[in-house]
Amino acid sequence: MKASRIVVFGVAAIAALLLAFVVRGLVAGKGSKAASAQVAVAAVQVPTVKVLVAARDLKPGERLAEADLTWMEWPEASLVPAYVTDGEVTTPLPPEEETKVEAKVKTAAKKAGDAAEKALAPTAGMEAYLNGVVREEITKNEPITDRKIVRADEGGFMAVMLEPGKRAMAVPISAENAAAGFVLPGDRVDIMVSREIPRANGNGNMQVVEPVLRNIKVLAIDQNLQAAADQQTVIGATATLELSPEDGQALALARSQGSLSLMLRSYADAGGASGRVTPEDTSQMTSNTVRVFRNGQASEVTVSR
To answer: So which residues are the signal peptide here (predicted)?
Structure first.
């Protein structure tokens, strides 16, 4: 055999070996990528159930329609007893994605899901919440819970709106004694009483204005639990207030003694103390006398501040 042929065969053999190594590397690379993809799929795709959520932001006092609610896929392992489910079985993973890694993930998720399912009460579906009233603000995609919704079949909506230990009490209002109608449901007010008391020198009576309650939540104006979206004022005949039993007694007494006025508080002051103004509070206030002219007649009014 000629030397040239030997060289050609040698080069061909070396090329074949190199090609074999390249093909093997490519096959191994594809296999590892496929395995990585399977692990990623197993890590992301977990069993889910449908949970009832808000389809948009919901404000207190709004009545629910079907368009306000929707179902959302929710990880089964993240369920809590307060969530509302559609009662259907868990959405499984595709059979072709059954791998050893995924099996471990599903086993762990199933244990957590079984624990949640035992505590879950999938009795009420979407229909049970239609025509219900929002009790607390709910953001879009937030799960619906009984704590934030008063269902239409429960009745006694105002009683459900009240915080534990509180009472609802209505007082007469007008534009003159309720900040010109700028007091809206959800606002907080201070309540003053204007009444007549005998003068210290016995020479007739004088009017005084005294604080009765402070930082009181307004639940409703007339039967309106919230103002319209573009409404800045509400002129009503009554304001329903949230009070403690003791505060209600103090307000009833003050109403029998004189006329009430509601003073709108700033949102920045909404976090202060709430309830009756005590004698200790009034002792720290200063009193000023203001002369008021009505129909040409002058009178003096003592104002505490």
So the answer is: none
Which residue, among 180, 167, 169, has the nearest Cα to 264 in the 3D structure? 180
| Domain formed by 48-150, architecture | Alpha-Beta Complex (3.90)
Spatial neighbors of 53 by CB under 8 A, at least 6 apart, are: 69, 70, 71, 72, 141, 142, 143, 144
Segments of the chain assigned E as strands: 48-54, 69-75, 133-134, 149-150, 167-172, 188-198, 205-221, 238-243, 259-264, 275-276, 287-294, 297-304
Sorted by sequence, the CB contacts under 8 Å of residue 248 that are 6+ apart come out as 167, 169
pTM above 0.90, yes or no: no
CATH 3.90.1210.10 boundaries in the chain: 48-150
Pairing of strands 297-304, 205-221: parallel
